[in-house]
């Protein structure tokens, strides 16, 4: 089995090859799609360069009471309630056979499954439909069972949580589930998906079983750079790798209000992605509002069929963040705000990162800025390129001396005209 490991603040294969977690939120995939639909989905995401798909075994949309595409439910009943200690595996095309098929199909397409054992409303019904079915005892048994079933699959990551806070009683449930998973599967990495405007470090900073942390920066209008940066700085305070497992989704109504007529688009998705990149993340998760939900009947709130949204601009463009990150020395990368002088507020906020002999500065609105060229000491010249996040193409526009400062002006300005300045020692 080729194993993913933690290497410093990043993820890597055991042989040291970098692994960039480029995820997609497909939370309802096991619950709502048929096998033929899954094959189409995974083939498209593989073509688009994704490396991980995030899916929930016990799904949010009444995943315990509404059957999957083949009329099957995941759990047997005990005293009238779904019982996590009794997964229903009887007969042909059981619910878990369907999950098996998804994991196998993802593997054939070179994709990991970040498998959430359950959505959070099954242990913390602060909103949603539940029902709450977990306690410490059955969480441990369910963790053992699901890890025994999938622990020998090469393409598994574990993602606990599911959009809910952890009060002490919920923390005990998650700890028990993690203990069950670890007993049966010591090999695969474990992380946690927190609620909106929160980090896994808020709840599990001291949890030994967490291998890397994630944030959920969320979907509201205030999720411009200030909020995004605060979230990531908090996660970065941990010595473990970190990333954003749920930023603004493409096609998501701002503030969860479709009456505003404002839906996040590819421009917004790119802002979160490149802000996150400069923060030194180990990966990034893309999301589309109509794909996580696997929408089949579009509405004002879910405006597209999932198969149409599958190829929306943001879904195609996010691959370029992985390509950029892998194009230079990987493990030396760190945040580098010292590379620029002035700063802009809100969605014009600049962000920068650098590695051994290179640096990036992201201008989300294409606004001019002053770059500090004297930060590089390995050469007396710097090659300057503009990288286009829409196309992934980079073009040289200057050779600078590696000293002093220079004002640079991106090729275009305005909303949707984001650019990355690449500086490389010659």
How is this fold's topology laid out?
Elements: E1 4-7, E2 10-13, E3 18-19, E4 21-25, H1 29-32, H2 35-47, E5 52-56, E6 75-78, E7 81-87, H3 95-108, E8 112-116, H4 136-150, E9 156-161, H5 168-184, E10 190-193, E11 198-199, H6 201-204, E12 213-216, H7 225-236, E13 242-244, H8 266-278, E14 283-286, H9 289-292, H10 306-309, H11 313-317, H12 319-326, E15 334-335, E16 351-354, E17 358-363, E18 369-372, E19 381-387, E20 394-401, E21 405-408, E22 419-425
Parallel strand pairs: 4-5, 4-14, 5-8, 8-9, 9-10, 12-13
Antiparallel strand pairs: 1-2, 2-3, 6-7, 11-12, 15-16, 16-17, 17-22, 18-21, 19-20, 19-22
Helix pairs in contact: 2-3, 4-5, 7-8
